[in-house]
Amino acid sequence: MNEMRQQNLNSVTENETIAAISTAVSEAGIGIIRISGPQALQVADRVCVLAGKQKSTLTEVPSHTIHYGYVVDPVMENDPAKKNDPAKENDSENNSFARKNTSEEKNVVEHGDIIDEVLISVMRAPRSFTAEDTVEINCHGGVYALRRCLEAVLHAGARAAQPGEFTKRAFLNGRIDLSSAEAVMDVIHAKSELSLKSSLQQLKGSVYHRIRTLRSSMLEKAAYIEAALDDPEHYSLDGFSDQLRADTEEWKTKVEQLICTAEEGRLVREGINTAIIGKPNAGKSSLLNVLAGSDLAIVTEIAGTTRDVLTQTLRIGDVVLNVADTAGIREAKDKVEQIGIERALSCALDSDLVLYVADASLPIDEWDRKILEMLSGRKIIALLNKSDLPAVTGPEQIRPLIGENGVILSISAREGTGLEALRKSIMELFYGGDLSFNDEVVITNIRHKECLEKAKSSLELLEECLAMGYPEDICSIDLTDAIDHLGEITGETMREDLIDEIFGKFCMGK
Ligand SMILES: Nc1nc2c(ncn2[C@@H]2O[C@H](COP(=O)(O)OP(=O)(O)OP(=O)(O)O)[C@@H](O)[C@H]2O)c(=O)[nH]1
Ligand SMILES: [Mg+2]
């Protein structure tokens, strides 16, 4: 497998040295330029002056050390300005910038050739993220200075990296498997503690280990069939079908269990789509505002204030919610309101969770019944709002409308009370109250889910073949397909174009 990856590396990158800005390109404390590849140290040497170490070059320093210095405009060997200057020509040995004495360094400073004052980290192959020689230049974070430093590095012989190319190299060099590489991206995009935890677990290889164990057990059986077909004298297939049938059932159950975690994974990755629904003036927009901690939606005492759906991604504790505030549902007074109400209902029907807000200072009426009837079967939390006012409606009035299992909570959007209980109920409804992710492998990546579904279909075909009593060589076709689909998750069986597509989605510098 590593051979396949290595061939891919050779064909795709031809061992070039690449560079990119690895931090966000915006005003910040520091910004990092990462250089990776066989010439990383030499390229860095052409642009870096190590302060106070006139004799040292980066090619000479030990691995995993950090050095104080400057980035300067590189002077290349074929630079015409340098060619006629014998003093500078002498300094061009080792391909390094003409700067090997203190006076030269002073010269650089005085003539303003310095682009930035930096810290330079050196990590030699294979003990780096890409498993190649890597230099990271920690610059001051200004956009202009960072771009100028990168330009200098590119001028000194590096090629601009493609999006995701560093991680792709880590994968192709066998440093990480594909599911861990994808987890790098998920860590960057993590919106909550929960999604960060699950991505970090995958980065450590949790999905990889689970899939590999499953796949090796399948590979063992496939190899046995092959051996028995080649050498029937020594390997018997008597009773093998029964064993294979039992194994297939077990493999399928394990694959199905992983597929089941994908729904939880989607909620972790993307957040829980939550619709706030209720009659006008119930306090829906007030709830959105108090959850968001700012006045996002207009709140007035006029019934029918909200007309359109307003969506906002919020974090409550560890949970990410994509909350939609909607128009109050009643007999519409005009066409705009009618459309708003239709949108509210369709939003409720598409959501993972409905927060039904009722004004508890008023009695419930026909509209509460109608709306809750339309929403029956959905995950609902009924919120008895305005608990700061004398209560007219209590849980006993709402209970018959939302059923035995529905959650009913008392809140005051105005005072911000009852929100902790709301968070706990959401955790309970979606994650069984547990956030730990300690040993559990959760599939959070859609591509992984698709591969698992394909593996499941192949196992179902294998079951059919076994039930029909087909010979082992026919059965092994479906078994091999299942093995390949699982291998696509970890990158052990992978098409080159798919690898490019996956890494192409990465951000620049990663
Ligand atoms: N006393 C009290 N008043 C509240 C509370 N929540 C909301 N209100 C008031 O109720 C009125 C309506 O609040 P909104 O948040 O606009 O209600 P809404 O459900 O979004 O209304 P529509 O957009 O018209 O559907 C406003 O005057 C709020 O200040 C609460 O917890 N207690
Ligand atoms: Mg509103």
Could you explain the architecture of this structure?
Residues 79-104 have low confidence and may be disordered. The chain has three domains: 2-176, Gyrase A, domain 2 (2-Layer Sandwich), CATH 3.30.1360.120; 187-265 and 445-490, Up-down Bundle (Four Helix Bundle (Hemerythrin (Met), subunit A)), CATH 1.20.120.430; 271-431, Rossmann fold (3-Layer(aba) Sandwich), CATH 3.40.50. The chain contains 19 helices and 13 strands. Strand 9 and strand 10 (319-325) form a beta hairpin. The strands form two sheets. It has a seven-stranded mixed beta sheet. Strands 9-10-8-11-12-13 form a six-stranded mixed beta sheet, with helices on both faces. The protein is of the alpha/beta class and 510 residues long. Bound molecules: guanosine-5'-triphosphate and magnesium ion (MG). Guanosine-5'-triphosphate binds at residues 278, 280-286, 299-301, 303-306, 327-328, 385-386, 388-389, 412-414.
